[in-house]
Design goal:
The protein is mostly beta strands. The protein contains five helices and 44 strands. Helix content is about 5%, strand content about 40%. Strands 3, 17, 18, 19, 20, 21, 22, 25, 26, 27 and 28 form an eleven-stranded mixed beta sheet that branches. The chain has a five-stranded antiparallel beta sheet with strand order 1-16-15-14-13. It has a five-stranded antiparallel beta sheet with strand order 2-12-11-10-9. Strand 23 and strand 24 form a beta hairpin. The chain is globular, with a radius of gyration of 26 Å.
Length: about 650
């Protein structure tokens, strides 16, 4: 062997030894639920006496994260004038949520953390520290306000003992199930999750307690529904100092099944990033096969012209013991946006929003993105959309709502393939707008909800108490613009003292009809400490092709399963209930079973209406279909029960399965 080759061989050997001596990147731990139980029906919990609140107490103080200072810049995305009179969208529902004025409720703390999800027939609104279940059809009747932690009574432990707030309500559009969650901020920190066993929010729930990564204070948690997993993010404040954001994935399949071995995999990011929002699926069309759940965040951590993207990939969805792969560490996946001046004149938030009649100012959490990171997939021939918003400073010195629409091609892509499609800063006058939430409908219309205020005097604006508004756009509007705003509630009071806490977030949701937007946030009816009210409203665009009008179909349950049945024998019938949750007659064309399944005649009575071909179901009414199973051969047998009708989402189907023996 020549001398040069010996030297090269020696060097390679030394290099290999050095590489082997380096520590391997640590795999994120695979955790499991530390407690599991099944709740009592929520409807029964609502009957329990609620704990009285003596005096007032505040929620945990806002934990701010230092940002590099940025001087004022020209915001080329600012919309400082109105497009013209608003004609394309209108208000439908408008009713009081939990808070001042809600029956048998008094505000125990602040801020309310107003949050909401919309299901087949119900709306669940959750504020600090109680929730209510309302009908999503007129007259929008709501049940009582129920203390959040009572849901976990059967679970025991820290989830049952603590009601710390920062709550989230989610609706899983794929499974037609509810997800309710709140973290525990005292003693042994933890994550409390409840998954409904049916589409009825007043029914029973699978209850889970998971650990908080590194046993750190899990502040400002946010959730998003994805395909293989539920995603949760929070800011880890350790035992006092900020450690960095956390991104967790939970085994959605197991949690829906009530499997107490459900896994949780969390990744700890560094203190150079913060306040992530996980992607949250709104569209009936799923993301392209194999696409990971993305997250977005870290406002101002790099500069004022980029946000950071993150992702989680479940290495083997069928075997979570193989772990997950997270990306985005150290802000290494940036997406460019239009440069902005941070909220509150460059301070990234704080107490800066003026209120009418008092000198106290309301808080703007301008140091972070506002909930949610809403996802919509156009499907074949279209693109993928993600929407998010945050507070910035407009040219008049007032806060404006900056909204972003991010898109990606219709294929499984990494976060680096996403790009800005359009953005805008909505500041058409001198009023202050802040604490927004944004979503889109199936027609591509976008609606942003937010709080608006202007103090007793306001340059270029109109003196007003904090009130609730929405502003929207259609695809034909000029890029980066919103039409004239629409007021949901005129505030009649301001918030004195209360540590100036406002928000800390609001929620814009899109109904399963693909056209009806639902929004909720806070306001004041009177100027008084700890006396906030909340409002729930729905809206639609005229050109959506539904927009809250017309029939809507809800099927319960969404699947039927038979056990083992002798080949040639007929198993007992099972029932499907169809409910028209819309506001117009539903005309059923056909009801068709497939496979080894057949319809069974349902006898009409005073209490039972059968669903049959050619029948009409009035708004709010229901009908029944019975199905039986006669296996023609051994093994697993599958089929479906399909309904065709005049609802926008026709046809609808119920999955059928059984086993022949």
């Amino acid at each position: 062997m020549c001398k040069e080759r010996r030297i090269i061989t020696f060097c390679l050997a030394v290099a290999a030894l050095l590489l082997c001596s380096l520590p391997l990147a640590a795999q994120d731990a695979v955790n499991h639920a530390v407690r599991f139980a099944v709740s009592q029906p929520l409807g029964e919990l609502a009957k329990l006496p609620q704990s009285p609140h003596y005096g007032f107490h505040e929620a945990n103080p806002v934990r701010r994260i230092a940002k590099p200072s940025v001087g004022p810049i020209v915001d080329s995305a600012e919309q400082s004038t109105l497009l013209g009179p608003q004609t394309n969208y209108s208000n439908i529902a408008n009713f009081l949520g939990v808070g001042n004025g809600f029956p048998n409720y008094s505000d125990p703390d602040a801020p309310p953390d107003t949050n909401m999800a919309v299901g087949d027939t119900q709306v669940v609104q959750w504020v600090n520290v109680s929730y209510t279940v309302c009908s999503k059809t007129s007259p929008y009747t709501c049940g009582p306000a129920i203390e959040g932690n009572t849901l976990w009574n059967n679970l025991g432990g820290i989830c049952s003992a603590n009601n710390d707030g920062d709550i989230i309500a989610q609706w899983d559009t794929q499974a037609h199930r509810w997800l309710l969650a709140q973290n525990v901020f005292t003693g042994n920190y933890g994550v409390c999750v409840a998954i409904s066993t049916t589409n009825d929010a007043t029914g029973t729930y699978y209850l889970y307690e998971f650990p908080a990564v590194n046993n750190g204070f899990p502040d400002y948690p946010k959730w998003g529904v994805w395909v293989n997993n539920y995603g949760e993010t929070w800011n880890n404040f350790g035992t006092g100092n900020f450690v960095g954001p956390v991104f967790c994935a939970y085994n959605r399949t197991k949690m829906l099944a009530g499997d107490n071995t459900a896994e949780q995999i969390c990744h700890q990011y560094t203190s150079s990033e913060d306040s992530l929002l996980p992607g949250d699926l709104d569209s009936p069309t799923l993301p392209p096969s194999g696409e990971d759940q993305f997250a977005i965040g870290s406002v101002g951590d790099v500069d004022n012209s980029h946000l950071s993207l993150y992702s989680v990939h479940i290495n083997d969805p069928g075997d979570w013991t193989k772990g997950a792969t997270f990306t985005g560490d150290n802000n290494d996946q940036l997406i460019a946006i239009t440069p902005f001046t941070p909220a509150c004149n460059g301070a990234y938030g704080g107490d800066c929003v003026p209120q009418k009649g008092i000198t106290d100012k309301a808080d703007s959490l301008g140091d972070r993105l506002m909930y949610r990171f809403a996802y919509w997939n156009d499907g074949s021939g279209g693109v993928q959309h993600w929407l998010v918003n945050f507070d910035v400073t407009a040219s008049g010195g007032q806060n404006g709502v900056r909204w972003e629409e991010i898109t990606g091609p219709e294929s499984a892509v990494p976060p680096t393939s996403l790009s800005l499609f359009q953005d805008g800063t909505y500041a058409p006058d001198g009023n202050w707008r802040w604490m927004g939430s944004v979503a889109r409908d199936k027609a591509g219309d976008i609606l942003v909800g937010y709080s608006e205020s202007c103090g007793s005097t306001c340059s270029g604006g109109t003196p007003m108490y904090p009130s609730i508004f929405v502003a929207g756009r259609t695809p034909s509007d000029p890029a980066g613009t919103l039409e004239a705003e629409l007021e949901l509630v005129t505030g009649s009071g301001s918030q004195p003292d209360t540590s100036d806490r406002w928000g800390d977030y609001s929620a814009m949701r899109i109904d399963q009809d693909g056209c009806t937007f639902w929004y909720t946030t806070e306001y004041y009816q009177v100027t008084q400490t700890f006396d906030w009210s909340t409002q729930i409203g729905s809206f639609s665009f005229a050109g959506c092709g539904g927009g809250g009008g017309g029939p809507q179909v809800s099927l319960t349950p969404t699947s039927l399963k038979w056990g083992k049945v002798l080949v040639g024998s007929t198993a007992g019938k099972k029932k499907v209930t169809l409910t028209n949750t819309g506001n117009a007659d539903l005309n059923i064309s056909t009801i068709t079973p497939s496979g080894d399944f057949a319809l069974v005649v349902v006898k009409k009575t005073k209490k039972v209406t059968p669903c049959v071909n050619g029948s009409t179901v009035a708004p709010g009414a229901s009908c029944i279909v019975d199905v039986d199973f006669t296996p023609t051969q051994t093994g697993l047998r599958t089929g479906s029960l399909q309904f065709t009708d005049n609802a926008p989402n026709s046809p609808q189907s119920v999955g059928l399965s059984g086993t022949g023996k």
